Amino acid sequence: MVDSSDRQRAHDEFLAEAQELIESLSRDLLLLDESQKQGQSNPDALNDLFRGVHTLKGLAGMFGFERIGSMAHVLEDLLEDLRLGRAELTQHTLDVLFEGADGFQRLMAEAKTGELADIDLDAFSTLIHSVSKAEQSAPNILADYDLDPGMLSVLTEYEEHRLRTNLEHGSTVYRLRIRLPLDVIDSALEDIKQRCKNVAEIITYLPSMDGGGGDSIDIEMLMASQATEADLRAALDRQDGKLTVVQRRVRISRSPDPRPPVPSQRPKDLPEPTFAQAAPARTQAEQSASLRSLSSVVRVDIRKLDHLMNVVGELGTVRSGIGRVVEKLRNGGDAMRELASETHRIHRTFNRYLTEVQEGVLDIRMVPLSQLFDKVAVIVRQTARDLGKDVRLLVTGSETEVDKLIAEELADPLMHIVRNAIDHGVEFPEQRAASGKQSQATVTINAYHKGNHVVIEMSDDGRGIDSASVRESAIRKGLLSDQAVADISRQELLQVIFMPGFSTAAQVTDLSGRGVGMDVVKTNINRLGGAVDIESEEGVGTKVTITLPITLAIINALLFEVRGRLMSIPLASVQEALRLDSSMIGTIEGREVLTLRGETLPLCRLADLFKFAGESPIHSFVIVVVVGNRRLGLAVDRLAGQQDIVIKGLGRSLANVPGISGATDLGDQRLVLVVDAASIMDEVLAPKGNHLLVGGPS
Amino acid sequence: MNDSLVPAGEGPLAVEETGMREFLGFVVGDEAYALPLSSVREIMRLPPVTEVPRGPHDVLGIISLRGQVTTLIDLRRRLSMPESGITARTRVLLVERRDETLGLLVDRVLQVYRLREDEVELASVLGADASSYVMGIGRPGVQRSSRRSDSEEAETDSSILILLDPMALLKQYGGA
Predict the structure, then answer these.
(1) How far is CA A429 from CA A393, A440, A462, A508, in A?
(2) Which residues pair with A431 in a beta bridge?
């Protein structure tokens, strides 16, 4: 028993760690893709990629996931060739690498479920080898430069490749000779690395045989940079170093000189120990750096956090309980007064610490949206390439944080919207050119915090949504009657896209037409207590805006009563709550509306909507809810204060109940329903019966 | 608050060894029913119920089970029995259904019956009209527990138990 649960834990541990590695692979691949498109090389990303795959290989081997291991093995071979310049990084190579990352993802699912993923490793391996053989390295440029043969001879294959690449890209090679004290050599080297990080690439460094005393050593460094000597000097900011430019031996004309490959000179007369001494020093520095960064991060199972969150939530109800006791004591006469103030002090202190704990736990659950946007970027690239469209992705606000749970639930909707945008929105390059647009389309994602909400806007500069085809499709699918379609405004028409069973694509494509549509997106977002809105202008583009609460864990809610039943609504969706005066209520086209400071908004009597039995309601208050850019007044009987609550979902048996997002325990064993403002809004604002032929569940 | 009669699945005698099967008997409306004892996790008194508007007809509402939101199904409605109101003997049976625990409201809990092979008849004896959730008829004939009080015996004929299949009974509530 113990043995198998240990194994399960190890298995889980592997999955978690491998998942992180695979996610960072995608990130590095995107960086590579970006630099490749700009005609630059990105050795850092390539190295990270190589290390990641290598680590994954090791992990998989350790835990016995052979298929992941062999996948990593073949990828590692290709990456090694790329790193050493034996193969060239092309878009085709990147495709293969992306395919590899996707393959890992599917093999992970296989490892998780035990169901064999449909991946032909042999075919993939053949593909990889065809790629790495395709390109041979360029002629050697090193012979043209006045490089110390002693130094050249100790360069590793990789360093030599980096040096060559830099020279080919027109960088200048510098030599830096600097004396460093032995006792702090690691940190001194690290300091130099940091200083020239953005200016130059350090190819290698070696301790010099001559020079230096008992407590210091001369280091010879080879670095390549696009910057001028003066700039590099300024970046280094060290007076004691001697910086020289490595000169080119032969003067050549400006045009590139096609030169036969010259074998590199590799005299073997330099003593071995030099190399042996230099290498360990560097790896050690690298290792300690990476260990440091790892040790400050703790990976936590989200379920543990959920549990903690629940406990904190229960403490919140304890706090409210004490609050009530304080109130009672206050009204209990002189004898109680002293007790009241003492309890009040305790209550206040408790409150302060509890708030801190709450915020702390919430903060742990927060993750930056970049995790999500990286995945979206992969989708954008793949979708665009599959369809033969040219798309660039601009992301802002990826550091915006949301609850981990929300980030996870958001993944599918985002992917779907982005696929839709590229598939249906973005035109082919030639069509774009013909209509006077840039042939490269732009998909923009912008995320930011707005109060207790996070807003994610996704826009494209494609063709926009064609009203005529939406109308036609809505009628054909029986979603709207001819009459309704004629009356409807463009903004209302766009809402039709969110109706179940709607899809404008003339033919269902493999990409976005998988039977799920924007209705699923909307349902998912609503379930999280959020809203999704769409704006579109024909010929100009489409913008989808998602508004979500930052966290689902603990929220501030407004309590109210409807026909004797206590209910609650997240305060985040409440604009205001006020006394309802009959003079404020009017009727427009058979619907009740509320006039508030000169503005008109629809009114919904909750007791009627929920068909609560009992005495006729008083409706003496109205709660104005706002979701996205829509508002609605909810008539209720009585307001019952504010409280922090932990929303718990209803079970699957009640998953389809409209208008309710969950329930909360206020501490007296009685559950209070939490009203879902967004879904009530959809229900109330939906076109009336005669417009709508097919509606929600009846 | 929870008067757990028997910890589920931990009967003194293992089912396989004796050829006996254990059932928890209870009354709904004017019939005696039984569920496999192993499917019942706990028996509790009726806690405060929160009504869920526009939920399925059989669902009475939700209850808090140690902070966990639990759906309460009125077995009287599910089994199309008359509703006789809530009494001091009304109980909630907690039954695990895949990933969700459901509460079942019953009018009264009888006892645990250990039925021999020959005390159980298959549902097919009832013909094609039998509901899918009836898996058989139990006749705890001669073998009786001495714990049972005679007053209960008088009210309901528990000599015939309708044996319910929990999976089929609860399938409609968002399950498989």
Answers:
(1) 15, 6, 11, 21
(2) none
Identify the DSSP state of A423. I
Per-residue CA distances from A222 to A155, A211, A479 (Å): 10, 18, 70
Express each pLDDT in A333-373 by its tens digit: 787 888 888 888 888 899 888 888 888 887 888 888 888 88
Residue whose tokens read 């953005």? A198
What pLDDT score was predicted for residue B15? 46
> Across the interface, do B174 and A652 touch by the CB < 8 Å criterion?
yes
Question: Could you tell me if residue B7 is inside a domain?
Answer: no
Identify the three-state secondary structure at position A347.
helix
B76 part of a folded domain: yes
Domain match, A326 and A348 both: yes
Burial class (CB in 10 A: 0-12, 13-18, 19+), A436: exposed
| Chain A residues in contact with B102 (beta carbon < 8 A) | 651, 653
Contact B68 A672 (CB under 8 A): no
Q: Provide φ and ψ at B127, rounded to 5°.
A: 85, -175
| pLDDT digit string, tens, across residues A417-439 | 998 889 888 999 999 999 888 88
Look at residues A141, A283, A149 and name the one whose alpha carbon lies nearest to residue A224. A141
The Cα–Cα gap between A158 and A147 comes to 17
B53, B67, B71 member nearest A651 (Cβ): B71
CA-closest candidate to residue A638, choices A579, A587, A594: A579
**Residue A128: per-residue pLDDT:** 79
Q: Which residues on neighbouring strands pair with residue A367, listed in sequence order?
A: A402
**Distances in Å between the alpha carbon of A577 and those of A44, A499, B116?**
56, 31, 64
Interface residue of A671, A673, A674, A676 to substitute, partner B, most B CBs within 10 Å? A671
Whose tokens are 């930056």? That residue is: A368
The token pair that represents A181 in the structure block: 């004290």
Residue written as token pair 């050593």: A217
Residue B130 lies in a domain: yes
The question of ipTM being above 0.90 is answered as no
Q: Which segments within A285-440 are labelled E, that is strand?
A: 366-368, 391-396, 401-403
Please state, for a pLDDT cut of 90, what percent of chain A lies above it: 11
**Where in the sequence is the domain holding A580, given as residue range(s)?**
555-685
Domain enclosing residue B126, as ranges: 18-170
Instruction: Tell me which DSSP letter residue A580 carries.
Output: -
- List pLDDT tens digits, range A243-282: 888 776 644 434 444 444 444 444 444 444 333 333 344 4
**Cβ-proximal residues to A84 (8 Å cutoff; 6+ apart), any chain:** A157, A158, A161
